[in-house]
Each structure stands twice: as C-alpha cells, then as structure tokens.
Amino acid sequence: MKVLPLTFKLISLILLLGSFLTLLLTLITGGTEDSALGKFYWLQTDCSKYPGSPIQGQCRWTYYHLCGVASNGKNTNCVKSKPAYPFSPRDNFSSRDKIPASFLNDRNKYFFMSRIGWAFAIIGLFFLFCAVLPFITYILFGGRFGWIFWILYGLSFLFTVIGVALSTAVFTSGKNVFGHANNKASLGARILSTAWITIGCFIVNLFVIAYIRVSRGGKASDDYIPPVYQEAEPAVTEKKPGFFKRTFGRKEKYPVDDAAALQADGLSAENAVGGQRFTDTVSGDGSLGAANSRGHYSLNSKTENAPQYTSYMPSEQYEQQVQDVMRKLEQEKAAAAAAPQ
C-alpha cells in the first residue's frame, strides 16, 4: 500500500518542476533570434500600415522587443532588447499616424499591463524556486517545513496567475483593436500554451499535495497510529440544595453554643438587632404572655409547639441578658398591678 503514496509524491514533484520549467520558458521566450525559442511571441500583425513602425511587414511583440518575421518563422531584425518591453504602439512607433485610437487614448492601460504582467511572472518564478527545497523536505522526507512551503507556493501561484492573466488580457485586447482597424492580428499559440500549462500544473499539484497530506495524516495511511485517549476524570461539583428544598422563617435551626440554653424561657417573639435578642412578653413562671393595649398582660401556659431559639452569643452573656429582661418584666408587671383600674 506504500506504492500509491510514493507515486503521488513523484507526480507532485514532476508537476512542481514542470511548472517551474514552463514558467521559465514563458519568461525567456523572445529574448533571442537564433534558438528554437525565436518562434515564440505574444502578438503578430502587419506593421507596414503604420509609417512610424521600425519594422516594415509582419511584426511581433515579445517580452523583450519588437521583431520582424523571418522566412523560417523565427523572430528577426528585432529592435534593441529591453526587459518588460511594453506593448504600446504609441510608444513603440515613432509616429502616431494611422495608429488605432484605442492605443492612443488608453495608452497607460496597454503600457503598464504588459510590463506589470512580466514583473509579476518574474516574482512568481522566484517564489517557486524558493519553494523547491522546502517541498522536497516536506513531501518526500516528511520534514517540518510544511508551513514554509505553503507560504512560498501560495505566493508563487498568486503572482504567476496575476502575471499570466494580465499578459493574456492586454495582448488579446490589442488583437481586437487591430482587428477593428481592418488589420488582421494573431496571438502566439506557443507562448499562450506554455503560460497556461504553468497555471494548470499549479492547480493540479495543489490537489495532489492535499491528497498526500490527508493520506499521511489520516486513517488510510499505512503509518497511521491511533491516538491514545485518556478519559478525563469527572469534575467534582458541590451539590447545593435547590430553591424549594430550603427552609425559611422561624422554624430554621441555628447552631447551639450551649446545649442547656434556657429551655423554659417561653419567648414569644424575638428579633436580632445589633447582636441583641428581645422578647415581647415573658411571664414570671416562664409562660408566654401578650401585652394588651391597656398595658395589662394575659398569662398563657407555654404550649408544646412554641419554638425554641438559641443564641450565637456565649452562654454567660445570654443568661445575663435573659435575667435583665426578666427583671424588667417583673418591674413592668408590678407597675401594671399597682395602677388604678
């Protein structure tokens, strides 16, 4: 099963080197008249109709100069070579006589698009060259330089696509302008094929590299090792009583500081204010009493259901407080008994 991944790695390497070679050929074509590359050009038309043209007869635009056409189909009698030679008849010809109006009015469009297209293709070639070594390390040997390769390869693809698209667009537009001026023009099939084969190699290689990456890291790989999972311990959460399970009011129990805290108090009501405890009425024998509007107290026997309360304060302080309250109530009781009916 390892033969298939190795095959895709070789295919990816061939596509990478192929895209580099075709892009290089696209950029160097038209730079010489003697080699086989002399038959490459972007646009060909009849320049004899324009008095200011340096080439009389059929002429061709390449990335480096304006050339004539030899009998063997190669470029000949080229003007002085210049990198990123602009496709702009207004600048290429010494006279504007009979030049189509579109080349005169939209001069910047043709001038800059043709030059920028070449420049972007050069930048794409540079990034592609820099991506070769990280590619070999990442794909063939499984190195850790994958992010470097993807950055370089992505930049190369971006600049190359823009450069080829600009060049194709500007020369296609020029062909149409010459055609509307009753001057037949043709695009160079060789250089167009070479340029767009480069883009095709880029796109296909992206899918191949993605497949290699998925095969290496997925379960389909022969080297796949299932990850070891460790079950996480459940988090310990403190359970709190629900809202309806809580008790409120006077029946709630509080901690008792002293287990023998005054079981015969018979306190009828109690409020905690400023750390002190108060009672409404306490009878002399410990039974509950209620004060009427006249100041008289009616004594009631202590019921079994009377709630018992405890205090948070120390036992001695609590007992002293109860004694003070009892003493005060005795005084009030005596005063009420002595009052005239």
What's the arrangement of secondary structure elements?
Elements: H1 3-28, E1 43-46, E2 58-61, E3 66-69, E4 75-76, H2 89-92, H3 101-105, H4 107-130, H5 132-140, H6 146-180, E5 185-187, H7 189-217, E6 272-273, E7 276-277, E8 289-291, E9 297-299, H8 315-338
Description:
With 341 residues, the protein is α+β, with helices and mostly antiparallel strands. The strands form three sheets. Strands 4-3-2-1-5 form a five-stranded antiparallel sheet, covered by helices on one side. Strands 6-7 form a two-stranded antiparallel ribbon. Strands 8-9 form a two-stranded antiparallel ribbon. A hairpin with a 5-residue loop joins strand 3 (66-69) and strand 4 (75-76). It has helices at 3-28, 89-92, 101-105, 107-130, 132-140, 146-180, 189-217, 315-338, and strands at residues 43-46, 58-61, 66-69, 75-76, 185-187, 272-273, 276-277, 289-291, 297-299. The chain has two domains: 3-217, Butyryl-CoA Dehydrogenase, subunit A, domain 3 (Up-down Bundle), CATH 1.20.140; 251-338, no CATH class. It starts with a helix and ends with a helix.
